[in-house]
TrEMBL record:
Domain of life: Bacteria
GO MF assignments: DNA binding
All copies of domain Response regulatory, residue ranges: 2-122
Start and end residues of each HTH luxR-type domain: 144-215
Transmembrane domains' residue ranges: none
Name of the protein described by the UniProt record: DNA-binding NarL/FixJ family response regulator
Example of a GO biological process term: phosphorelay signal transduction system
Keywords, comma-separated and alphabetical: DNA-binding, Phosphoprotein, Transcription, Transcription regulation
List of residues that carry 4-aspartylphosphate: 52
Gene3D superfamilies, sorted: 3.40.50.2300
Amino acid sequence: MRVILAEDSILLREGLVRLLAEEGHEVLAAVGNAELLLKAVAEDPPDVVVADVRMPPTHTDEGLRAALEIRRRRPEVGVLVLSQYVEKRYATELLTGESEGVGYLLKDRVVQVDEFLDALERVAGGRAAFDPEVVRQLLGRTTHTDPLARLTAREHAVLAEMAQGHTNAAIARRLHISQSAVEKHTNAIFDKLGLAGGGEGYSRRVLAVLRYLGS
């Protein structure tokens, strides 16, 4: 796949460039700030952008705002955002967008190469990829709401896996249950959350759940 990187840490940026090249991916550009990121995407749109949330000059939300702008201008470009910590406001702002093909990973996840590459491929393919810790904290923030409190322990586990962007088949493998059981739990989750009439696409269902959890 064709990738553009935006990370102000030279060490991490160069490490990602080398990793992606070794995996056979083409790195179109590797930049250190949001302005250069937007310019690079405009000049040669990639399949996916990997961007740090916090970049110069203020190191607050430049990377996130650039990611949102890319999704607005070019919804076909996947965006995988990296963050040092779980920043719920930023995660919610990204996850409640209309576009598909988004992800939010903690930087610690990058060192787990297989998980990082899997997330990158999911985002590039128009699916979702959310860090388990991000999902855990978003879920935990809304456990006081009645609909979520109605979920069984198994349904809660399925929801957490679904929110990370895993397919039903992958959830079945990860939870050691049948795919038909996953489908049953998924239908129950959407019924209880009032989302049974949501979008038909898998990624839209994931985003609908996260939009609800982030509200």
